[in-house]
Hints:
By secondary structure, the chain is of the alpha+beta class. It has 1 helix and 7 strands; from the N terminus they run βββββαββ.
Amino acid sequence: MADYIYVTVAGSGTGSENTTKPIPTNNIVAITGSSTSTVITYGSNDESQIITLTHAAVGSAVPTFIALVVNALKEQQQNPGKIVSIDVSTYAVSDCVQSSS
């Protein structure tokens, strides 16, 4: 069974309300970031999957944003079954997209 952490995506629902998107926690091989996006890369037998979080410019706080994701992953791994959300209240996340690399 896959476990998830959750991120609130601003204005992504019908009528521009916020929605919560699940992010799988299994098989993560890397988390990288730039000023306006953070990429979670998954390893698998076939091809790599990625989730890209697009967010407000974080500038020099890229390591801080990545730490928010990593800390949420650690909390979920230490508390299986617990609903864990990434606190992105400081960094408005505008998109959460899964794709193949």
